[in-house]
Design goal:
Radius of gyration: 19 Å
Structural class: mainly alpha
Number of helices: 4
Shape: elongated
Order of helices and strands: HHHH
CATH architecture: Up-down Bundle
Strand content: under 5%
Helix content: 55-70%
Length: 113
Amino acid sequence: MEKYEQIRRKLIKRKENLEHRLNNIDKDILHTNTPPDPDSEEQALERQNDEVLDTLGGLVRSELEEINMALIRIEQKEYGTCSVCRKTIPIERLKAVPHTDRCVVCADLDVEE
């Protein structure tokens, strides 16, 4: 079995979950389940809810992109190597944050900047 097979399966499962969630968010934003409320106060509340959903959708899309990049790195045998310092990322970190492309040191440096 490949070294990162368990993590790859975890990434795929998370990807499927996020795609399902994103689909539901998109449906809610488009109001495909129910027509917009004719009451203006309700419409204002719906717009606020849409803004929250849009923000959540952006976060989901961002995580999906990171997962897709991690899956590509696995396929290309580059997974587990820090994209900054090129050192091996400890397996414990990869299990905790499977879509990461940076070791803890380089990730901390990125946050500080």
